[in-house]
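Write out this protein's structure.
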Amino acid sequence: MDKVIIYGVHEFVGFHLCKRFLEKGYRVTGIHFKIEDALFEEEKRLEVGRNANFIEKALQDSENLSEAESEPAIIIISLYDLFMTCKASALTTKKIFENMIQSLNKQKQTKNQIVYLLPIQLLTGSNDLNGIEDVKDFLKQTTRKDRSIQLFYLPTIFGPWQPASFLFQRLLLNQLNKTEEQIVIREWPFDAIFINDALDPMIETIETGKPGSFLLESGIPGSWERCTDFLKMDQSIKSEFESVDIKSDEQIVKLSLQNITPYSESLTIQREHVSRIRNLEDES
């Protein structure tokens, strides 16, 4: 298949996957949730919009319901991004879930490959985090036996365009803006992967078409802490975390990184991107 449909194309991981698939020559239809800041939205369009293989549609557009019926496609749904971004109201988030469920369940093309990007917290069995039940309910309503399905469980992913709901981005914004906005940690504080390093193992697995469950991991002990040390996070915040076990499951395949960008380099890239975007905000 050379066609990809990405639900949440202007969200964090969804956007980076869109760029990489376009670079590889795929035709990409991006489904937009319309909850992104207008300035950020336009900046992202500048990065992908000139590519003739890219089409953007709004989630509310009724044409989305039959988008994948004419030919098989890889359909990527980034529940990870929706879970991690807290910028939308509960009502808006509920509506997005409802529209996606309707869209997916109306598609009749049985040869579609469905790819779910999921927070690793689903593997802990905990229901305490706000939004985790919504993700579970979505999976129940859209997982069908006549579909080829891949589940990707992601730890903390960081890099350019990381939302402010992530600790790393919040720390960088506070440092650059000289503010002390509250830090609320929703991410996984036991592993961290730079987005550029995460893309290749994910896409190569997607291209195999092999159904299954996959866990992306850095393979580096204390990777998340190394990042927070580089960002000079207050040590008292670390003391709030208790070790959490992931449910062992022999059916989950662990994906290792092929390339690992040094944390000093990857976080510097993110810092420079935050600075550039902040300057654009000042100019607008």
